[in-house]
Amino acid sequence: MNHYDIAVVGAGPVGSTFARNMAEKGFKVAILEKKKEVGVPLQCAGLLGKKIKKVNKLPDEFIINSVRGAFLYSPADTVLSVSKKKSEAYVLDRVSYDKFLAELAVDSGADIFLNHSVKKVDSFDGDIHFKRSQNTKMSADVIVGADGHSSVISRSFNPPAKSFQAAQYLVDVGERRFKEDFVHLYADSRVSPGFLWAIPLSENTARVGLFADANYQQLTQFLDELIKKRPELAGATILKKFYGVIPKQNPQKKLMKDRVILLGDAASQVKPTTGGGLIMGFVCAKMASQIVSQALEDGDINILQNYPKTYDDKFKKELKVQLMVHKIFKSLTDSDLEYMFRKLKEEGAEDIISQYGDMDNQSPLVKEMFKRGILFSILPKMLSRGISSLWK
Ligand SMILES: Cc1cc2nc3c(=O)[nH]c(=O)nc-3n(C[C@H](O)[C@H](O)[C@H](O)COP(=O)(O)OP(=O)(O)OC[C@H]3O[C@@H](n4cnc5c(N)ncnc54)[C@H](O)[C@@H]3O)c2cc1C
Fold first, then answer.
1. Ligand 1 atom nearest residue 244's Cα
2. CB 14 less than 6 A from any atom of ligand 1
3. How many domains does the chain have?
4. Could you report the per-residue pLDDT of 216-255, keeping only the tens digit for each?
5. b/e per residue, 239-265, with b = 16+ CB within 10 A?
6. Most CB atoms closer than 10 Å: which of 106, 155, 265, 375?
7. Is there a single domain that holds both residue 229 and residue 359?
């Protein structure tokens, strides 16, 4: 039987990053990945705030495009244009980046086992059971479930995770139509609190997608409608279609049991407002690696109990704000959205969003809007629609 200090289930970006952190500290690490090839198929828009460079390695070769602004469209085409002087976000080649992170973990000393689908783990004694009879028996002092949105590890001590569905097309519009350093975000009450996006990869190609509480047939319909309706997308050739899942935040989710912890999408460590999970996942990978190494060095598995607490201390407040924003958006009709966009434009919110907007941290913007009374000028209309019940 192979015994490891740590077994990481899932060679996604977050699992590989955690595995690398632990291997660099000198621990014996196994990565167990059900797929034959890391990173495929693509299930990501690949848009990451510039903070990514502070929380993980990102060589320039994986950056397809840099973005410094956004056009935000209301349902009836009121446009808010927000921007920074310098690049605010990167558009990544996610497939190659996932492979790069897994290779880094292996270069740091981790063993990777592809084609190894974990069926279940025993949180008490650390035994790992695989789906097919690969004759591999494995155990670990600490098991990390980084196995994504439908995590089998999470399901062994949590109810099934709730999630949004996502769809994305790679499109070519055949001519120079995109301002490369601006993304397009489209509000539509049918998909709220999700939204639609067009993220340029070049002047003529883009990732066009959405996430929503809807089935794949509806998602496809919304995307097709968007492409027909929007002048920047009209007539686009669809080169590829992708489908995926974004976990919903669940403050009740248990992040650990005995010698098992959850990380990344498996732990629903995703920003509610954008569905982005990479930066938060990388921050949590670092946090978890500090706690897990302490537990292993001290030979005291109870130290893992510090993980949920440290996570709450860091993220609880911000997640609460984002969930509140989410809840409001979910309740809005198209006419509410229209009113909100017009009011924001009138009140000069483009400048405020440009100044205080941060892809990864929405509290400063919400606070500033609140301070300047802009939220109050939008709220009466919403309250009149009887959504005050949201705040209960
Ligand atoms: C359409 C779409 C667009 C997105 N856009 C963005 C974006 O622009 N920016 C952003 O930050 N985030 C985005 N996200 C979210 C982001 O892709 C995820 O948050 C991120 O992939 C989470 O990484 P992870 O390592 O936790 O999990 P995953 O990337 O899901 O990796 C989990 C790994 O575990 C493996 N696995 C699963 N089950 C088992 C098992 N039983 N045994 C062994 N291995 C297993 C899987 O094969 C996979 O390799 C998007 C998601 C979608 C669906």
1. 53
2. yes
3. 3
4. 999 999 999 999 999 999 999 999 999 999 999 888 999 9
5. eeebebbbbbbeeebebbbbbbbbbbb
6. 265
7. no
